[in-house]
Amino acid sequence: MTYPLSLPANGPLITLTHPKPTLWIIELHNGQDSRLTAELVDHGLKPALDVVERDWRERWRTAQNTKDKTGGKGALIIVGRRDQDKFFSNGLDIVNVIPNPNFFPTTFNPLLTRLLAFPIPTIAAINGHCYAGGFMLALACDYRVMTDGSKRNAWLCMNEVLFGAVWPLSFAAILRAKVGDQRLQRKIALEGHKFTAKEAYEDGLLDHLVAGKTVDVLAKAEEVAEKFGTNAQTGVWGLIKRDLYRDTLEMIARDLRATNAVFDDAAARSRL
């Protein structure tokens, strides 16, 4: 594979780099605020995850054959647009998502389940505002590193309750899996609270706060990747997560797609 890899090829919305043998970085760059669209997910993020997993598994298999105990090490970072310090992701592109009944069951939910069970550690490098679907994307990762907001304000918020959007089953399932305190679940889901980075860290939504800009957030994320990427080398990181999040994965699978020929055709075309 030749890096960097920009996807989709006809209008890149993400870029995948491989700066170290054990590290992959996906950068979101759909406009300035990296809103999540079906095109970005189906033809950007999903194929990028395929590339990362294929590369890592090849390294892992080679390590098994050569008895190289460190060869299966690896981690993935997802970061917002690197040339700004304002947004990780401003959430779903609602105008395009609402008319698409297949978006959650065939596009976004499979992305979330893929991340929940991904075979190497995943780190969300939250370099700015992180809203709604972007918040869920970050929660689906194993670790979250965020700017502390000292250089520029940065918020985390699930704001659907404020503009009248119903959650898919996947959002509630992931929230229950990643946030144990029911009072905090209520604050996130029903109050639409806008968390400062400091609040989110104190409430356990974040693992690290970083003073500085995107480059500093990425540097801390790389430290986390270096530390925990070692745990991927036995090959069981993803297998343990499948059991850890089994109930969550099963609940997400209940988000059934609409079944008629027109909707089925639309879902098929989005994948092709």
From TrEMBL:
Which Gene Ontology terms of cellular component type are present? peroxisome
Q: What is a GO molecular function of this protein?
A: delta(3)-delta(2)-enoyl-CoA isomerase activity
Q: Which GO terms describe its biological process?
A: fatty acid beta-oxidation
- Do the record's keywords include Metal-binding? no
Q: Which keywords does UniProt give here?
A: Isomerase
A Pfam family per the record = ECH_1
Q: Keyword check for Magnesium, yes or no.
A: no
Task: Tell me its family.
Answer: Belongs to the enoyl-CoA hydratase/isomerase family.
What's the protein here called?
Enoyl-CoA delta isomerase 3
Source species: Hypsizygus marmoreus
